[in-house]
Design a protein that fits this description.
By secondary structure, the protein is an alpha/beta fold. It is built from 17 helices and 16 strands.
């Protein structure tokens, strides 16, 4: 079984390498990394490109031009997020990158694709040998998409340097707790914050790589030809390490140019806590920020922690710590850095050709063992116009034209019954809980 993860990241290697190798340990085979900022530096990309199974997509003019021609811009399911700043802009970028990652995944012969951020780790609880591969192997053949409910980090001190190695306490998802307990302890569990979780609560999804699939926002996948058959894991989760460093307040603030007012932040952020954090980081002194961070993010009340732990809202998860620390002690990360140095000259001489995403991905994949990219180069001396995949003979041009006609029919078919993109959603709040209790 071939499992891929795609991400859009600006993180440094100190975060990406533990994230990547952890997922390799649990069974991920390929990574499609859309990089920018620190992740796109020559040193970072050289290190990442030297790792087998990793495809790095750089923020080039070519990428921008390809994505400007995406069919997404002519559809309605993502339209509500277009031309808005900050988190909305990121959400659109992630969706465009996911669309392109589908093409990479098909051409690399992947069975599954998952979109994750580099502050998230998959937790394959309930699977034999703590294996993502075993977990997905047990999914019924007629299931198209499997949802991992997310757990959120609950940090216990304000000076964390390495979240994957230091954080072991997590707040469990609404889907994995007793509803009566969630209702009874909701106020205590929120600790004065806008919601039960600081950020999103609707998980992330793994999808089988199929014809006609598309992203449905950063949290889900969809299909132009059918409604995916979806399940939700009862034990497995995605661990979200959110706001684990005090510096996250200022770094998130620096990525957004909105005014720190209650009205303007609504244009920039989808979730209430992000809005409040941005205003604090933009208007408060360092000392005030520290005090706010301790009150709203850090779990220092041991009595409350124990109460929520006993009632199943908080839990301890040590497996990621053990795996990441083991990898570090084995020299895996330092070896990757050394291999990257040797890869610098080679990486400078390689060119990635990006696939077109103006139509749904229905061209059969050509699997060469690595990620293969379609271009329009003709084979010299060929009797027909042949499209090639990095020099490997691919599809005859008349077949490609034939498939293009099929895609036009597909576009007509899929224009009805559009499913809107699923945004980051908070867990149920008190008003929703009252509504749910009244219905039941």
């Amino acid at each position: 079984m071939q499992i891929s993860i795609t991400t859009s990241t600006s993180a440094g290697l100190e975060q990406i390498l533990p994230w990547l190798y952890y997922h390799r340990v649990i069974g991920v085979t390929n990574f499609f990394l859309f990089v920018e900022s620190k992740a796109a530096s020559p040193h970072s990309t050289a290190v990442l490109e030297a790792i087998p199974g990793v495809t790095v997509i750089h923020p080039t003019k070519e990428l921008e031009d390809k994505q400007a021609k995406s069919r997404i811009w002519n559809e309605t399911w993502l339209a509500g997020f277009f031309f808005k700043p900050c988190n909305y802009e990121l959400f659109v970028k992630q969706s465009l990158n996911m669309e392109m990652a589908i093409v990479f995944a098909r051409e690399a012969g992947m069975d599954w694709i998952i979109h994750l951020d580099t502050d998230e780790l998959l937790h394959p609880a309930g699977a034999a040998e703590y294996s993502l591969r075993r977990l997905l192997q047990d999914v019924a053949a007629d299931v198209d998409m499997a949802v991992f409910p997310n757990y959120e980090s609950a940090i216990e001190h304000d000076d964390i340097k390495d979240p994957f190695s230091e954080v072991s306490m997590f707040k469990k998802n609404y889907d994995h707790v007793m509803k009566e307990t969630y209702f009874e302890l909701y106020q205590e569990a929120t600790r004065g914050n806008p919601n039960y979780f600081l950020t999103y609560g609707n998980g992330k999804a793994a999808s089988r790589v199929q014809d006609n699939m598309r992203p449905n926002g950063a949290h889900r996948w969809h299909n132009y030809m059918k409604s995916p058959n979806e399940i939700k894991f009862e034990e497995a989760a995605v661990l979200h390490y959110t706001y684990t460093k005090f510096s996250d307040l200022s770094s998130r603030r620096d990525r957004c140019g909105c005014k720190p007012t209650k009205e303007d932040v609504k244009r920039c952020f989808m979730l209430e806590f992000d809005r409040a954090a941005f205003i604090i980081a933009s208007t408060a002194s360092q000392e005030e920020m520290k005090r706010w961070y301790k009150e709203h993010v850090v779990w220092t009340d041991k009595e409350l922690n124990l109460k929520l732990m006993r009632n199943g809202l908080l839990t301890r998860i040590y497996a990621p710590q053990v795996i990441v620390q083991g990898l570090r002690e084995a020299g895996v990360f330092s070896d990757a850095l050394l291999a990257g140095q040797a890869h610098v000259e080679k990486s400078h001489s390689q060119m990635h050709v990006l696939p077109s995403v103006s139509q749904p991905n229905t061209i059969p994949a050509t699997n060469t063992g690595n990620s293969t990219i379609m271009n329009n180069k003709k084979v010299k001396g060929a009797s027909k116009d042949i499209y090639t995949v990095r020099g490997i003979i691919g599809q005859p041009k008349d077949l490609v034209n034939e498939q293009a006609a099929d895609r036009r029919k597909l576009l007509e078919f899929s224009s009805n019954g559009i499913v809107a993109a699923i945004a980051p959603l908070s867990p149920p709040d008190m008003d929703q809980l009252v509504s749910i209790s009244l219905r039941t």
